[in-house]
Amino acid sequence: MPGWLPRTLLWQTFLLVALLLTLALAAWSQIFRYFEEAPRARDLAQMVVSVVNLTRTALINADSARRRELLIELAALEGIRVYPAEASDEIQPLPDSRPMRLLIAEVRRSLGEHTRFASRWKTLDGFWISFRLDPDDRDEYWAMVPPDRIEKPHALEWLSWGGAALLAALLGAYLIVSRIGAPLRQMARAARAVGSGQTPQPLPESGPQEIAVVARAFNQMAGDLARTDADRALILAGVSHDLRTPLARLRLGVEMSGAPEDEVTAMVTDIEEMDRIIGQFLDFGRGAPQEPPQPVDLSALVADLAEPYRLRGVALNLSLPDRLEVPGRSLSLRRALANLIDNALRYAGEDKPLDVSLFEEAGAACIEVADRGPGIPEDQVERMRHPFTRLEGARSNTKGAGLGLAIVERVIRAHEGRLDLLPREGGGLRAILRIPLTSSSSSRVRMPAVTAGAHRA
């Protein structure tokens, strides 16, 4: 669609209806004009013939001494001028239009084929017509009929009435189209509310049958989604209690079983992996975060999240500014960053250092987690953003449910940002969370308090 056209259904339909009405009015005007020209030509021809006949009769019956006075009176009272025709007269023909052709034909039918017409005689403009005092007379005269008697009267008035009729039709078309657009706008607002996890007010199921049917179906869908969301929350609560509690008892039993230490460590590791996978399912199943957005200091968040990994002996190289705030949800961002770090440790191994840095770039706060693992092929990056997706190559032997990046993608989109998965020079993966800054919450990055390769407690 061309860029100059409106994108809303209301204005697209209105412009289409307005175009149709304008074309219809123009077509009817042309039709009326076409069929009105012939009767008008006959009326004008009758008037012109009457003027010529009366002028001829007056000149024939008037005394030769008074003809000059008669011509002066005709010019003064009726606007009709009469001059003798000469061979040297400079004349300009009438415009070649259908109304003029019809008029000329009607006048010649009454006055004879020898009748001539002109729009200018010498330097005088008007409707000029030639006539003879006697059919056998070779002398001709020119009679000028005032132009206002030939021109179509009330043209401006007809144009005004036509414009008023078109305006009224356009107003009616706008009212008709707005009756369709208003329910659609209400439905769009309700759909956005449903998409954000809210339960909108039921749409009115009145009005035209088609709109009422759609509104009824939408209300039913919204109700079904609300009930499904409630059931999902109930199931997640049950899963969290009914699965994690037995896992905790199982871990305690394994640790107290007295089995060899290497076997206990392997079983505990499997139990922790099961608990982690259950946690990922729960995180993904919760959907949109319910935590309200507020200013979040990303420097403090990253440092606080890195502390447990540091105590486990993981080599995390932090590069953080003193302070960098964004509007966001702290718990969701912690979950997303933890998933990125866990994902990097799982694929690169805990024996290799991870570089975690925070910086500002192009109006966004960027949290980068860089590892030295096998990386992700460029043609697989988009596929890895989807849930339950894992690589078939180098990363296929690693445990996991394939939900880590999907959870990160959902969290970052809720913050109107994006997740970039880029290859790292020298091998590995750079996962970058880009969170937009606002003018009120953006803080310029100062000199880092911690440099690359150092740990921040």
From TrEMBL:
<dbReference type="GO" id="GO:0005886">
    <property type="term" value="C:plasma membrane"/>
</dbReference>
<keyword id="KW-0547">Nucleotide-binding</keyword>
<dbReference type="InterPro" id="IPR036890">
    <property type="entry name" value="HATPase_C_sf"/>
</dbReference>
<dbReference type="InterPro" id="IPR005467">
    <property type="entry name" value="His_kinase_dom"/>
</dbReference>
<dbReference type="InterPro" id="IPR032408">
    <property type="entry name" value="RisS_PPD"/>
</dbReference>
<protein>
    <recommendedName>
        <fullName>histidine kinase</fullName>
        <ecNumber>2.7.13.3</ecNumber>
    </recommendedName>
</protein>
<keyword id="KW-0472">Membrane</keyword>
<dbReference type="InterPro" id="IPR003660">
    <property type="entry name" value="HAMP_dom"/>
</dbReference>
<dbReference type="Pfam" id="PF00672">
    <property type="entry name" value="HAMP"/>
</dbReference>
<feature type="transmembrane region" description="Helical">
    <location>
        <begin position="158"/>
        <end position="177"/>
    </location>
</feature>
<dbReference type="InterPro" id="IPR050980">
    <property type="entry name" value="2C_sensor_his_kinase"/>
</dbReference>
<dbReference type="Pfam" id="PF00512">
    <property type="entry name" value="HisKA"/>
</dbReference>
<keyword id="KW-0902">Two-component regulatory system</keyword>
<dbReference type="InterPro" id="IPR003594">
    <property type="entry name" value="HATPase_dom"/>
</dbReference>
<feature type="domain" description="HAMP">
    <location>
        <begin position="178"/>
        <end position="230"/>
    </location>
</feature>
<keyword id="KW-0597">Phosphoprotein</keyword>
<dbReference type="InterPro" id="IPR036097">
    <property type="entry name" value="HisK_dim/P_sf"/>
</dbReference>
<keyword id="KW-0808">Transferase</keyword>
<keyword id="KW-0997">Cell inner membrane</keyword>
<keyword id="KW-0812">Transmembrane</keyword>
<dbReference type="GO" id="GO:0005524">
    <property type="term" value="F:ATP binding"/>
</dbReference>
<keyword id="KW-0067">ATP-binding</keyword>
<dbReference type="InterPro" id="IPR038421">
    <property type="entry name" value="RisS_PPD_sf"/>
</dbReference>
<feature type="domain" description="Histidine kinase">
    <location>
        <begin position="238"/>
        <end position="439"/>
    </location>
</feature>
<keyword id="KW-0418">Kinase</keyword>
<keyword id="KW-1003">Cell membrane</keyword>
<dbReference type="Pfam" id="PF02518">
    <property type="entry name" value="HATPase_c"/>
</dbReference>
<dbReference type="GO" id="GO:0000155">
    <property type="term" value="F:phosphorelay sensor kinase activity"/>
</dbReference>
<keyword id="KW-1133">Transmembrane helix</keyword>
<dbReference type="InterPro" id="IPR004358">
    <property type="entry name" value="Sig_transdc_His_kin-like_C"/>
</dbReference>
<dbReference type="InterPro" id="IPR003661">
    <property type="entry name" value="HisK_dim/P_dom"/>
</dbReference>
<dbReference type="Pfam" id="PF16524">
    <property type="entry name" value="RisS_PPD"/>
</dbReference>
